[in-house]
Amino acid sequence: MLEPQTRATLTEQLRPPTGFELVHAVGTTFTLGLDTALSVPLAFAARGVTEQADPIAILDAVRRAADRVDVFAQAGEIALGARNNRLVAFLEPMLHPVTVPAGIFHPKVWFLEFRSGDISAFRFVCASRNLTSDRSWDVVVSLDGAPGNTADAASLEARNAPIVGLLRSLPGSAVVPLVPERTVRIEGLAARFARVEWETPNDLEDLRFHVWRSGAPARPDLSGERALIISPFLQDGAFATIRGGIRRELLVVSRSESLNRLSRGTISGRTSAFVLDAAADPAEENEGTHLGVLRGLHAKVIVVNRERRARVLLGSLNATDAALHSNVEVMVELVGSAARFGVEATRKALGDLIVEHRVEPVDEANADDETGGFLDAVLRAVAGAQMRIDVEGDGPYRLRVSCVDMVPATDDVRFSWRLITRPDEVREGLPSENGSWIEAVALPDVTPYLVVTARDGEGAERSTVVLADLHGDPDDRLDAVIASHLSTPADFMRFITLLLELVGLGTAGAGAGTAWNTTAGAGGDAGAGLFESLIRSVGARGRGLADVDRVVQYLRARGDTAVLPQGFDELWASVWEAQRRLGGSR
């Protein structure tokens, strides 16, 4: 169980095993906060980088992960987060908004491959928590595996087929087509995942995967004597479907507003209803609501007792009609002893967290389900239409923003939009097919991210981040973003230390600036030590040197050389000459 205050627990599930490094990670989420998405590359960093780290450390971690991470999220459900951060530019290649015909994209899973030498390791994480800063009660199951025996290939492929099929389908659901290299990498990961043999968690006998997709819903056997359902959102039809195979007692744990909206008689007889105790969901001091932070119960669990066995399903599926018939959903099923994992054991484990529900009048103001209300649906439709940004000029730049696809007309809704990097330049309406021009855009402000806001006749509004298809992207744009975070020689030293993982310069902390000042431009052993450390990055490991040189050239071209430490030019000239001779400029 993920408690509201343990927001880091989910990303901790992504960390490589000791001695392993990340090969490829593919994640899915319904909602996504750009600031929270920055925490994902931090989980794969070689050193313990956290969300509290300085921007330069975060920049380095995100840059390293950009080619190895892909995240798919529901179009129209991407939020800016608590603060605007230019570092989200480095997330662009790994973020892929998706659409689902007649439904929503709702799974929260991770496909992970790690390697240590010739040894491969795999992990599948299935959760109910989105990639946001939600303060909610959630569940997560993490499965570790290894390549299976060839003799067992058929049975392994059959077991893994649901999640492998989902993985293969992701590129085709993206609003903006993936570059071919990423699609090929995902297909390769799917092929390897097909034959993974999973470790069964302690005291559990079996595991299965269930994926609901439009036109091909999963049909797990939910028949049994007793059952317990944890579902924050409920609808009569879906609830009746799940309850239909239960012969005796049924316990349901949900949100009070969801239970109140059920038809009279749905919760009666052998069915008992519970809600999260208010004491288990304390409000955090100074917590704002303007970001739509989700609170309270958000876990999705189905427990079914049959004879002496229990089947436990955990993941993203709510007991709603859309979840069963039109959404994309994933649940992992674990089979074990009813005494340890069944209804009574789960009820006891929940303990004082839940209390019996008392029916109250429906509060229509809070009657939306997890997918939000009317404005949320409108924004999903808008975000599902492909936007395009064309960049012209050689700085400052002109940006032409247009909508390639037709956006459905919506009565009584007014739109506005802006670049994520230009919060004060809001345009009314939506970009048209002919396009709207934005003038005098500085290089670090060139971006494919648009913030679109929908406002109804009563003044209510919702916003989302749309990822447009960027054409004519300047080659040195990301270098400009890096340079915008380098304001002192100490910043530059920290950047180069992290980028090259230099040995002998101490940890990448506050003392890095001092380490440079005592070595750069100075004679003696200290200067020689720095030179030798830089030389170790030459040749096969020279990509980092090329990255540094690109930023240096950008700074010089703009005349921003004050951030370069004294003596750097002479030292770098020697290193770059060695790189040219031994490894070639890259």
Automatic annotation (TrEMBL):
Residues 293-323 form the PLD phosphodiesterase domain. InterPro entries: PLD-like_cat, PLipase_D/transphosphatidylase. Signal peptide: none annotated. GO terms for biological process: phosphorus metabolic process. GO terms for molecular function: catalytic activity. This is Phospholipase D family protein. It comes from Curtobacterium poinsettiae.
